[in-house]
Amino acid sequence: MEKKVLIVNGPNLNLLGxxxxxxxxxxxxxxxERAVADxxxxxxxxxxxxxxxxxxxxxxxxxxxRSDGTSAIIINPGGLTHNxxxxxxxxxxxxxPVIEVHLSNLYRRxxxxxxSLTAGVAVGLISGFGVQGYLLAVQAAAVLxxxxx
Length: 149
Hints:
The chain is built from 5 helices and 5 strands. By secondary structure, it is an alpha/beta fold. It has a single domain, classed as Dehydroquinase, class II (Rossmann fold, 3-Layer(aba) Sandwich). α2 (about 30-40) packs parallel to α5 and α3 packs parallel to α4 (about 85-95). The two termini are about 15 Å apart.
């Protein structure tokens, strides 16, 4: 049976490659999605991407994952990481394995970024490895779902 991973990117990640490249790198969201899709294929996973700058849209898509055949969620909540209780509750409510990923190392940034409200409902957190962090998250999802190559 096919295992589907939903990759969710939160606010401002549509600006990858343009916004603060010294922090987030020069790759665009499309570049990131191509790399992740290739890794998913290598790991025998189907992937779907979703990005929104709207908290409600992210929550609606996460809720949909509960019944659309999604097996795991990889999420970069962006700035919502640090202040969104409702996003945390949505992730907890779908009862799927969640892997949180961040391009930058949260602990080398401003002190308000040192707390993740969403990490407490995640299986694990990968932070600071740029786009490679997403690929590591796909590999971790493959192990969790038993499809690793």
